[in-house]
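REQUEST ID: PR-0412
SUBMITTED BY: lab tech R.K.
PRIORITY: routine
TASK: structure prediction, single protein chain
INPUT:
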Amino acid sequence: MTTESREPAGKLLLIACAIGFGCFFGSYMRIPVVPLFATSLGADSVQVGMINGAFMLLAGALSIPSGLVSDRLGRRLPLLGGLILLSLSSFLLYWSRTPLQMASIYLLFGVGLSAFSPTLMSYVADVVPPEVLGQAYGWYTMAVYGGMTVGPAAGGFLGKALGLRQVFLAAGGLIFAMFVVALFFLPAPAGGHHATAQRPAISPALKGLARNRRFVACLAATLGACAGFGMFVTFMPLYIRSLGMHSAHVGFVFAAQALANALSRLPSGRLSDRLADRRVLVTGGLAVFAVALAAFGLCRTVAQLMAVAALMGVSMGIAFTSVGALIADVVPRELRGLAMGCYNTCVYAGMMLSAAGMGGVIEGAGFRTAFFLNGAAGGTVVLLFSLLYRRPVEAGR
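STATUS: complete
OUTPUT:
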């Protein structure tokens, strides 16, 4: 199905939510498994960080070009190509035998994620009316984080019951099923694909976005918060194991974070549509997020870890739902794919910085110091966002 859609916006949003749920469910099945699998192949904590950093580096570097492709060639091509690459990377992980092979395969995962994630976010903004954009992102991100909720838990349980390698087969099959759904049931958005000649040139478009202070503030908030989230995603499985727990406990902690994150998305989206200034939700969410990051360093039981992870999940749901709606608000439609590409670049760049840098801190000073440092950095991000966002929107709008 390649023609532009004339389907109701609600139906297209529902299909996009289903694809987002399934894809992130499959991808996040691997999150608690990859660090444990890598260490079983002989990797240390620094190498585990480099494996995760490899895909984050490529995902961040390619998100902006992917956004440009979706603006000029339509949403379907990068969306379908990204799903294929995500599925293939899971199948290849099943056959990997060394940490170096895992890092190479994770580069492919990064390419797929850079094509899929910003494109589907832009698709949602294309098909829904602007007056309900916050609610639409609430539904979409709730579906995505719903996948993140059950994905790690399912991965942890499958890894314990069937073996770590088998998780990769299950994840690859599920993501491929989402490719089939997108291929046959998710058409191009109506009016979303104009001639290339009508699109702004790349360099002026990027300069215009750089002059949009509120857009830059959203990127700064995203970059800083995702640096903290990268610490959680990459090293939490190793931290939990250092406390004498097993992979099922890893699934519990990840599920607590993602469930709270998902359940907070819809009410946060509705609230952001009612507030005159979404900045309030972003600032408050980021502040609580910083506190939760630091608090991980004080946890010693699975119940404590789950409680703090849930608090972190709520803070992310509040902050990131509003950030996504703010970006769609402050940039014109013809630059939306590029803007979402910049957003996703900041997501993976932040996670990569933490994954690549915190391994050495953990080796030298321990997990507690690493969590405290990330919490302090999160507090700095709150101040930076507030300072940038106060400035008026300039010519980039």
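NOTES: Confidence is low (pLDDT under 50) at residues 193-197, 391-397.
REVIEWED BY: pending
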